[in-house]
Every structure is written in C-alpha cells, then in structure tokens.
Write a structure and sequence with these properties.
The structure is a single chain. This protein has 210 residues and is an alpha+beta fold. It has two domains: 127 residues, Beta Barrel (OB fold (Dihydrolipoamide Acetyltransferase, E2P)), CATH 2.40.50.90; 46 residues, no CATH class. It is 34% helix and 21% strand. The protein has a five-stranded mixed β-barrel. It has a two-stranded antiparallel sheet with strand order 4-7.
Amino acid sequence: MREVFYGILIGFIALSGLSLVILRACQSNYVLVTAVIDDHTIRLANGTKVRYIGISPPQRGEPLCNGAFEANKKLVLGKRVRLEYDVQRTDQDGHTLAYVYSEDNTFINGELIENGWAKVMTVPPNVKYETYLLGLQWKARENQRGIWAIKVKEAPRPKSEQLKEEIVYITSVGKKYHQGGCPSLKKGKTPIAKQKAIKQGYTACRQCKP
C-alpha cells in the first residue's frame, strides 16, 4: 500500500514539474512592449520592431489617425505580448511581421479591425487569417464602428459633368437656349443638354437667364 502511495506521489510531483516547465516555456514566449511607434508598429524589450500583419490603419492626416494610435497604445504599451508568424517574417524595412497576442490571448490585429481602427490589407504570402479578419471588418462596418462611422463627403463634380446633366430648351427659331418656363418657349421646345447646346452655338436667353 505504501509503495502505491509513493508511486502516486512521485507521479504527481513529476506532472507538477512538467506543468511548471510548460508554463515557464509559454511565459518565455511573451515579451514586453516598450514603445508604440505608430498605429500598427511596436517595439519590444529585446529591440525587435514588429509590424502587424493584415491591417491598414488610417494614414497621417486622415480621420481617426490619432484615435487608432491611442487604441494601439492602450492595447499593448507596457504589456507583454507573443508573436505568431506567417510565411514571410520580415518586410523590406526590416520589421518583423507578426500576428500579436496579449497575455489574456487578445488578438491585437483583429481587435483593431473589429473596433474600426483599421481596415484589412493582406499582402501575399501572409494571408493565413485573411478570411477571419475580413469577417471582423464586416462586423465593424455593420455596427458603424470607428472609421466605418464616418460619412465620406462626395467631392464636387467637375463643371463639365454638371453641364452634361443640366437640361435646357431650344426652339426651331433662333440660337438661344432657355429655362423650362421661359415665355419664348410658347411655340414649342426641344430639350437638350446645356453643354451640347453650347457646343452647337446656342447662347443663353437674356430673359430667363438659364
């Protein structure tokens, strides 16, 4: 009986020791973030500069650029993170390319996209989580979070395009174009695009001033 007890005890100690080794190995994979360089680049305590894979945050001068930077700082600055790699590990500037996870297993790349602080931008061959990230982006867009809450104002159309769509009226007599209610149109009128009328040599009626 005593031998069985000691056997169980030794087995328990061995398992505890193995668990501790595994725990320490996992913990050793986490590195402290000492600086947030921009909204998708960080520096680790070991000097490594890491750029997040699969995301494109607002550029400098664009709406929410500062917000994205602050969101990134809040997520990782002063915290320990681990890296997961894809096919290509570095970019042309020497940054390490990675998917980044905090100690509570928050997927930082995905968190920024899901909250509307960045859009998905994958560059082959690093496309491991492209479908997943696009799903998070769809969620952010549906819920109008971050950049998806901003209504983009349409740029004013060129004058030439406005003229193409503007309709005036001409008659079979004279070389003037008119507004629809001009008295000069009592005998009949033909609709025509204003730009086309001008090209054909018609000039604006002095009475209705179209």
